[in-house]
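Risk mitigation, structural track. In case the binding assays with NDP fail to produce interpretable data, a predicted complex structure has been prepared as a fallback.
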Amino acid sequence: MWQKARHYKFNDKTKKQRAFNTMNDTASKSHWYFRKAPDGNADETTFEFVSEPREAISEGGIRVATLFLSLDATNRVWLSDWDIYMEPVQIGERMRGFVLGEVIESENKDFPLGTLVTGLSTWSEEIVSSGEEFTQFHSSGDQDLAAAFGAMAVAGPTALHGLAAVAEIQEGEVVLVSAAAGAVGQLAGQIAKLKGCRTIGIAGGEEKCRRLRERFAYDVAIDYKQGDIESQLKEAAPLGVDVLFENVGGEVLDAGLAMMNDFGRVVVCGLISTYNAKEPVPGPFMFRNVIMRRLRIEGFVILDHIEHYPTYQRQIAQWLREGSIRFDVHTVDGLGSAVDAMNMLYSGENMGKVMVKVSDRALN
Ligand code: NDP
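Fallback model:
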C-alpha cells in the first residue's frame, strides 16, 4: 500500500493526499498496546500488536504516518511501578514513544500536508491527533532522516545538556562515559572531545570498543565485559577522572566513583543496568567518595529542558553537517519489531541509536 502511494506522479500534495487516503480509507492500522507489567525484560506477554480500522481525524486535526519510531531505554521505565518523572504508561493503553512522522491528512494550518513532525506519541503505524503533541521537524534534503531524528530528538540534547549545563566540562578535563557506544554515549564522547577533554568510554565487547576509538574519537576504550573495570580504569586515567557521565549504574558506576578527582562532577544521565531489576538494587558502594572527593552528583531528565532544545538542536545539526561528529543508527525494519528492538538496548546488541523504520515518506 505504501509502495503504491509513492508512485503517484501528482505534484499537488492535495491530489496526492486524496489518492493516498482513498487507497488507505478501508485499511487497518497497527498499534502496540501495553498488556502486562513485565517482570524483568519485556516479553511476548508485555505488549499486544493489534490491527484496528483507521480512525477519522477530528476537526482541526491531523493524520500522521509514522516513518521512524525511536526506541529509548526509558521506554522500559514507563512500564514500571516506580515513582517516575512522568505518568507511566497504563495497562490497556497504546505504548508511548518518540516518533518521526509525515502529515498525510490535515485540517490544521500549522501542519500542512507532507510536513515532517516529531513528538511523544504512540507505537502506531498511523496517529490521529489534534497536533498538540507534535512539532515540525526541519531537515535538509541530503540528510539521513533516521540519523537526524535520532540525534535531535533525545540523544543529542541529552548529551549536550549533561556535559555543558550539568557537568560544566572544561578544556583539559578527563571525562568518563559509560554505555559509550550507544545513542547518548557516542555523542557525549565526541562532544567532550570537541571541547578539548580527554575521553574514556566504557562499552561491552571488542567491536564496540573499536568503534569508540575509531568512530567516536574516544582516547581510550574500556571493555567492561573483560572484567576488572577498576584496573582498566586506573591504567586509562592515571590522573583520575573529573567528570563521570553515567548511563549504566551498578558495578560500572562504582568503578567510576572510585576514580573521581577532588571536586569532580557525576552526571547521572541513566542507570540502564537497573531498569529490568526484579529486586531492589544495592549500592553504589563507593558513595563515600562523594565526601572524600567532594563530588557534585546531579541527575537530570532532558524533557525538563525543552526550552533549550532549539539551541541544542542547532548546535548538533551544525556539528553533524560539518562532519565534526558522527552519529550511528541501528535501524530495525517494521513496527512489528518494536519490542525486539527495545530489548536490544538491554542485551547490548545495538550498534548505535535504535530506531524502527515504520514506513517511507508518502507525499514527498
Ligand atoms: P544506548 O543506545 O546507549 O543503548 C543502551 C546500551 O546500554 C546498550 O547498548 C548496552 O551497551 C548498555 N547496557 C545495557 N544494559 C547494560 C548493563 N546491564 N550493564 C552495562 N551496560 C548495559 O541507549 P540510550 O543512549 O538510549 O540510553 C543510554 C542511557 O541514557 C540510559 O541509561 C538512558 O536511560 C539514559 N538517557 C537519559 C536521558 C535523560 O534525560 N536523563 C535521556 C536519554 C537517555 P553495551 O553493549 O556497551 O553494554
